[in-house]
Amino acid sequence: MARTRTRYAPDSGLTTRMVTTMFLIGLLYVVFVGVLLAALRGSWPIILVITGGLFIAQFWFSDRIAAFGMGAREVTPEEAPELHGTVDRICALADMPKPRVAIAQSDVPNAFATGRGERTALVCVTTGLLRRLEPEELEGVLAHEMSHVAHRDVAVMTIASFLGVLAGVITRVALWGGFARNHRSNDPVGIVIMLIPLISAVVYALSFLLTRLLSRYRELSADRAAALLTGRPSALASALTKVDGQMARIPTQDLRKAEPYNAFYFVPAFSSKESLGRLLSSHPTLEQRLDQLARISAGLSRP
């Protein structure tokens, strides 16, 4: 039987948001596929095969694709003894199975976790992070990432992001392929088909907002869980401050390569201070995260 409990602090707010997000995403998915089936009635077998295939691919392979895209290379305890030792300590504290451990050759100081569950989990840190953080700071970052595995929110984010990916693909196909090219403007079917790009865009926007709202909360939840597990919120706050400050010194080209994977990272990477991505970030602001850690520290210091 799969393990379901660890010593990470439970978060009913996170659980509620994950269930709500999955329900609303599922509802959007049903409506979206229903519209496609109604508009393209003669092509329903193809639609079902494509949507089903994309869903399976998204669920089973997206974490591997993301890890590969971010350059994660699994390392043995002999190759990275200190890193493995830190992960071992957190696993002992949390009473959870040890995930696979990886290192990415990148000067961008960051870390991430992927996997559908504890059995497939992978925790990765970059060489830039290892070079810049003190041992207790690194422990806080890894505890944060492993809380995503313990709370299973990595899997939920993977599934929740599927509809946005699908809607984006449909929008591009509709715009580039010209679905309505062979239909008259007064043909009801043609009108529905012409609306597919608009419907896809709306679905994409809604799924994007739902996943962003969940993502911001889950980052705060991971900070809280890590701080309570290690008992050192100040170390995690120090790591956050240091990593965020170091981002400004990273070459813009490297930051641009990292930006597509911001939803996975410990701290998002932005190539521009005026980036629209900051407004629609998958993470709460640094001030929000530090404020929460300060409150936790104050609470732990009380008798």
- Overall morphology: globular
The span between the termini is: 39 Å
**What helical percentage do the residues reach?**
55-70%
- Using only CA atoms, what is the Rg? 21 Å
Q: Tell me the number of strands.
A: 4
> What is the count of structural domains?
1
Strand order of the largest sheet: 1-2-4-3
What is the strand content? Answer: 5-15%
The largest sheet is: 4 strands, mixed
Class by SSE composition: mainly alpha
Distinct helical segment count: 11
The SSE order reads HHEHEEEHHHHHHHH
Low-pLDDT regions: none
- Mean of the pLDDT scores? 82
Active site: 145
InterPro entries: HtpX_protease, Pept_M48_protease_HtpX, Peptidase_M48
Keywords: Cell membrane, Hydrolase, Membrane, Metal-binding, Metalloprotease, Protease, Transmembrane, Transmembrane helix, Zinc
GO molecular function: metallopeptidase activity
